Amino acid sequence: MKKTLFWALAFWCVASLPSFSQKPKKMKEHAIVFHLATPDTAAYRALTKQLNNVLEVWPTAKLEVVVHNKGIGFMKKEGNVLTSQIEALTQKGVVFAVCENTMKSQKITKDQILPTAQYVPVALIELALKQEEGWSYIKAGF
């Protein structure tokens, strides 16, 4: 009886050990699209901080900020005090997508926008497409 109990316990212990042939679990790939449409410069500062916070925890996360309407000031060259933060975030892989529809309606040209920008024809369609692809959505601002 003692031998049987010993072997049963020994087998259970060995069976409970992780197999060396098992591949490590793949970490979840995170993708978040941020929607920026406010002229609030405090929201702009908060957004850059939030993006850095996410990247600190998930350094390989895919992050895209879709900028349109009154939020376009965030990506304009003139008077932008966040240019260095935006450039640093771009270097970390963050995409800043500016709405061409907004640019057209506000008579803004690409030479007025930071060179780190990427462009999308319609911001709302970009947001919908990202969500259809499974990206999480966060409204930027307060």
UniProtKB/TrEMBL annotation:
SUPFAM superfamilies in the record: DsrEFH-like
Signal peptide feature range: 1-21
Record keywords: Signal
PANTHER family noted in UniProt: BLR3518 PROTEIN (PTHR37691)
UniProt protein name: DsrE family protein
UniProt organism field: Flectobacillus roseus
